[in-house]
Amino acid sequence: MKELPKTSMKRRTQNIRVLELYSGIGGMHYALKSTNIPFEVVCAIDINPLANTVYNHNLGNRAKHIDITKVNASELDGYHCDLWTMSPSCQPYTRIGKQQDVQDPRSHAFLHLLEELPKVESPPKYILIENVQGFENSITAQKCREVLKGMNYNFIEGNLTPKQSNIPNSRCRWYGLARKGSLVNWNFEEIIATSFKNSYKGEGINTLESFLETQASFESYFLPEKLMFRYGHQLDIVKPTSTNCCCFTRGYGQLVQGSGSVLQTSDHESIADQFEKDRMSLRLRYFTAREIARIMGFPDSFQWKEIEISEKTMYRLLGNSINVNVVSRLLSHLLYPSTGGQEEESIIKPSFY
Ligand SMILES: C[S@@+](CC[C@H](N)C(=O)[O-])C[C@H]1O[C@@H](n2cnc3c(N)ncnc32)[C@H](O)[C@@H]1O
């Protein structure tokens, strides 16, 4: 058989071609894996070498150390991708930060992408963007809506927390979904009604127990006495039977307030009473990085110790990452909207076929 030139061979595949921008440790890639959508991550881009090391070890050598502010439209075009996923830096928009929005240099990479996107000759058919809750009120978000609307994307957005997927974790995030072509009844509320619980206060949320390690040695995870006495009142304490834990941030294990919950390992009934009587007897420990990875939807095959990435680094990288299960459901709706997130043959075809 006559050998096809390289480009034609690429276009014979039925896989959705994906450009994973701000790829970190590959949360978007794992989310795609759990959709059953045939896909190929053509390139993953991140400026953090440690994140790239973890990504490349687990997901094949896709992650490249590139500064997004330096990538131009023709380079973006060259990837010929159907789907772009992006989780831009959230620090310019976080409620506990200064909320400097477009004035914060960390917003510049995304603003740059918004300038380059309209210049791309074959723009992606699908785009998924993730950021912190509150991003929707920023000037950056306004600019994002304008650019996507100007390019005739059908754009929907909303906030979701893993608890709406029965996962015992509060990590409310803003999601924006853009797709080419008009669709009747494609809206965020409909997606929530189809694949998420409308409220996260209801019943049916799993307990933390099923995410906990049982074989690990927890010695180095117990909270030291000094911290317990100085900052104990600021801790969010949960039990294995709890149906919630706070969002784990990049500062987990170092900062006390607002960086994530700690786990009671004693079996005292009332945390508050026992805390006042003898707080050390609660035997509080940090969640391990593996437990946090599980809560965030990463499979146990996801590795970092094997490549000598420390637990502290992993807390940081996981704190920056996404909830794989939530994003996976959203990706299904983005790629197969007319069947409520179920696979549909006609949509699998890449846009440039
Ligand atoms: C919110 S995290 C995204 C995490 C990712 N989705 C994951 O699952 O780990 C933002 C990522 O953007 C990267 N980043 C920030 N500025 C960048 C830039 N100018 N160019 C490339 N990557 C950048 C950071 O290193 C970080 O990994």
Question: How would you characterize this protein structure?
Answer:
- Helix content is 30%, strand content 15%.
- It starts with 5 loop residues before the first helix and ends in a 5-residue tail after the last helix.
- With 353 residues, it is an alpha/beta fold.
- Helix 2 (27-33) packs across helix 12 and helix 5 runs parallel beside helix 6 (139-150).
- It folds into two domains: 13-203 and 322-337, Rossmann fold (3-Layer(aba) Sandwich); 208-318, DNA Methylase, subunit A, domain 2 (DNA Methylase, Chain A, domain 2, Alpha-Beta Complex), CATH 3.90.120.10.
- 41% of the residues are buried.
- The chain binds S-adenosylmethionine.
- Residues 22-28, 45-48, 51, 67-69, 87, 89-90, 109, 320-322 line the site of S-adenosylmethionine.
- This is tRNA (cytosine(38)-C(5))-methyltransferase.
- Belongs to the class I-like SAM-binding methyltransferase superfamily. C5-methyltransferase family.
- One of its GO terms (cellular component) is nucleus.
